[in-house]
Amino acid sequence: MKHRRVLALGAAAALAVGLAACAPSAPEPGESGRSPGPRDATLGIGTTTDVVNFNPVLGNSRTDSWITNLMYPHLLSISDDGTKEAHVATDWGYVDETTGYYEIRDDLTWSDGEPLTAEDVAWTLNAVKRDQAAGTFYGQLGNLDTATAVSDTRVELALTQPDSSIVDEIGFWGVVVPKHVFEPQGSIAEFANDGSDGGWVGMGPFVLTDFQVGQHYTLERVEDYPLVEGGVPGPAEVVYRVYPDVNTEILALQSGEIDVIANALPPAQVEQLSSADGLQVIEAAGLGYAHLVYNMAKPELEDVLVRQALAHAVDYEAIRTVVLQGQAVSTGSSALMPVLASYYDDTVTEYAFDPELSRSLMEEAGHTANADGTFPVSFRLIYSLQDSVTSQWAQMVKDSAAEAGIAIELQGTERNTYLSMTSEGDYDIYAGNFAIMDDPVTNFALSYLPGGAINYTDVDDPELNALIEQGMVTFDEEEKISIMREANRIVHEQVYDNIIYTQNLFFAASDEWAGFISKPSELLSIVNPLSLASAYPVE
């Protein structure tokens, strides 16, 4: 169902009680002002990062996804509780335990007029698998053998073993690219797709036509986009503009230089902007979390006692109260999100903030404090300077750890540098966020299995591995839930991940635009393709 949530007084308090709570709905499009439909208008959007890669199977920056999602479609979309919804695919599932399938729409064309068919879908999957195109998409394909277009509208997946999550996850995370454009370029993992060979060919509501790094990315609408009501996107063009930080973005929004801020608002700005003239604040469900991860390739952090000491040296409630201003809740230090109600296990409880326990654990690990009470080891914590919320709570982590005699050195960097350092293991601790953790089995496989695409700390626990692998081949939902809860207890006990909080997110836009359709996470929010294609100016 198309809807949007607009922050009202008391919404932040309601969020603290439960993530399912939402504020009163805004008027539906058409109830006031102009009706929806195409207009000769430009929608300006602010971002704080540049595009790293225009190839949609490789992008690792949020701006990469925001831009390429407007050109390259996904088979499935997502609802607020993490369940998948139709998009390019109209039906999906399993023929048997080792054969999956998608039925796709028959009315879609690439921007050069070529039809989008099942052959594009199958070729994309096989090419990403063949060329090992590093990223989340490739990480979903571990159990894919081959994809075959058995008709113009049906793709079948031959799996190497049963995998009860792969169809949903490929459908949501994987994009479709035009075979006739990408295949002649050779390896899909090496194709820059930067427009230098004549521009871009996409199948989305907009196509990139011009950009200047550090300045802007301009996309023009296509005139035939059947996935939006009416078949034609509302804005004539969408322009992403790059700003150094969220405060500059807010000033640009208030001055009318842009109409939307793509990244989530810092909590301190939510109430202020919700009451500001000319602005609206729209809520998006959160399916991700903020966390600390300890690099077990470092000798000291290989010791679980040290990781436990660090976990008990974080004042979680203070972070949620002071930095998040009540707009976040505890997960119980659990990697299973409360929003995924059937999987959530409330017997897993949050690590207690206990500096004395931290000291005892450090001593048990063989570390002796100096005369001033500080242990002669220190840990380098990295974070993105563009993430104002994490920047604040990273300082609080340093301060609370100091109470336990543990020294933490903060290293804030530009976001894309931070992402590179994370993937290269160039840190002791990293503080950050995962935007969408929608399927427990897949998320655990990517995060904690050896070779997992986001297993940045090289977790390799035989008992945990066996449980995750068992969960992957289990189709009975109750049995799968039991398996993943047990896997989650191991992650918690061994501190393979330290989840600080989960939250719903809030996004600011000019009230001169309407029709936005909110989707979960910062990655999708109100800048997802359907939302921007549905947006229209109000008079």
UniProtKB/TrEMBL annotation:
Keywords assigned: Signal, Transport
Subcellular location: Cell envelope
Coarse class of the protein's main subcellular location: other
InterPro entries: Peptide/Ni-bd, SBP_5, SBP_5_dom
CDD domains on file: PBP2_NikA_DppA_OppA_like
Signal peptide: 1-26
GO molecular function: peptide transmembrane transporter activity
Gene Ontology BP terms: peptide transport
Cellular component GO terms, alphabetical: ATP-binding cassette (ABC) transporter complex; cell envelope; periplasmic space
Solute-binding protein family domain boundaries: 88-449
Homology family: Belongs to the bacterial solute-binding protein 5 family.
Name of the protein this chain belongs to: ABC transporter substrate-binding protein
